[in-house]
Design goal:
Elements: H1 3-13, E1 17-25, H2 39-48, E2 53-56, E3 75-79, E4 82-86, E5 92-97, E6 99-102, H3 105-114, E7 133-134, H4 135-147, E8 151-154, E9 182-187, H5 193-207, E10 213-217, E11 230-234, H6 239-246, E12 252-253, E13 256-262, E14 265-266, E15 270-271, E16 277-285, E17 296-302, E18 305-312, E19 318-323, E20 329-336, E21 341-346, E22 349-351
Parallel strand pairs: 1-2, 2-3, 4-7, 8-9, 9-10, 15-22
Antiparallel strand pairs: 1-11, 3-6, 4-5, 6-8, 11-12, 12-21, 13-14, 13-16, 16-19, 17-18, 17-20, 20-21, 20-22
Length: about 350
């Protein structure tokens, strides 16, 4: 790695710190919430587990974002509705959950008021229903979330009864409704069949040509845990700053900080690869996965193959650079070789000429 490569990475990530936390949780906040613990629990638990933030996605309400205990240096807001989805011919396509993440409750309220199907009763104590949508109408919801400053995620794609959605034998493109949204590739914890299946859904979507990001979600209801962390390099510890990077795909699904750029384009973005260098930095491992006795590996993926692997340390930063080739996208993964476990997935950078 040359000094010029390092300067390129520093240009994008200089002045930013690594924050690690949770993108999918539920607390006990009254009303229609179904979490077991109040926000006060989450504050203490996050500090004890060296987590910087938690995203509280209470159901059918916005009141959690107005409580006195709410602190936007710790909490990101939003909601997780469910829906029956119908095709334009009236045939039911399946049941989905979807996360709408916002830093400001007024943004979420504006979304709910824009779509009368939610029957939102308005204000901090207002509630809403889970409407059924056609696929086209759900696409309009996604567009509105993005337009209003939010971040949209399809959570746990293999844990709800999709009819023909991402699954073996079903057309993945049925649920490829929009680019530049996320799908959970880690669910509840790093290890296990659920996360492996969800990761494969994301890989299928990438193979189909989707420009979708991968995220992690603990879906915690009982108490806070550090089992499914997200890592974000941000300018400050504040919900609005976190969401600004989530909206660009500039984050890592997993408990390891990853930096990546091609030219001025960072993770989650798209540019022309021609003549540019791919530069990667691996930073802090969260304490939940850091073990000096374990062996770790950085894998660089180009499209559907690993083109470069290198042993790395969990205690020292790693930097790698290489010339780009004629691929559709690059992405990175961090692997715990000792545990035979995928720890973290950086979001891709896509080659613009391949998507024109």
């Amino acid at each position: 790695m040359t000094e010029q490569d390092y300067t390129l990475l520093e240009k994008i990530y200089g002045g930013r710190s690594l924050y690690q936390g949770e993108l999918h949780d539920h607390a006990s906040t009254g009303g229609t919430s179904d979490g077991a613990r109040p926000l006060a629990h989450w504050k203490g638990a996050l500090e004890a587990q060296e987590m910087d933030f938690a995203t509280i996605l209470d159901h059918r309400q916005v009141r959690h974002m107005y409580l006195p205990e709410w602190d936007d240096t710790i909490f990101i807001g939003g909601t997780e509705p469910g829906a029956h989805i119908f095709r334009e011919n009236g045939e039911e396509a399946g049941i989905i959950h979807y996360n709408m993440v916002f830093s400001d409750p007024k943004q979420l309220e504006a979304l709910l008021e824009e779509f009368p199907e939610y029957q939102f009763t308005g204000g901090p104590e207002g509630h809403f229903k889970y409407p059924s949508f056609t696929q086209e109408r759900l696409g309009e919801v996604i567009d509105a979330v993005k337009r209003l400053g939010g971040f949209f995620v399809f959570p746990h794609p293999r844990q709800v009864p999709y009819a023909t959605a991402p699954s073996v034998g079903g057309p993945v493109t049925d649920w490829w409704l929009r680019n530049e949204i996320a799908i959970e590739g880690i669910y509840i914890q790093l290890e296990g069949e659920r996360s492996e299946k969800d990761y494969e859904v994301w890989r299928q979507l990438l193979q189909k040509g989707a420009r979708m990001w991968v995220s992690a979600g603990g879906d915690m209801h009982e108490c806070a845990h550090d089992w499914a962390l997200t890592s974000i390099y941000a300018e400050e510890k504040k919900a609005a700053c976190f969401v600004s990077h989530l909206r660009k795909g500039d984050f890592t699904a997993g408990p390891v900080g990853i930096q990546m750029c091609i030219g001025d384009t960072q993770m989650g973005g798209m540019c022309d690869f021609n003549g540019q260098r791919l530069v990667i930095g691996v930073g802090k491992f969260h304490k939940s996965v850091r073990n000096p006795e374990h062996q770790y590996r950085l894998d660089v993926w180009a499209d559907e193959e690993i083109i470069f692997s290198q042993p790395i340390s969990c205690e020292e930063p790693t930097h790698v650079a290489m010339d780009t080739g004629d691929y559709k996208f690059y992405r990175t993964e961090i692997y715990d070789v000792t545990r035979n476990l995928r720890l973290a997935m950086g979001n891709p950078i896509w080659n613009a000429p391949k998507y024109r």
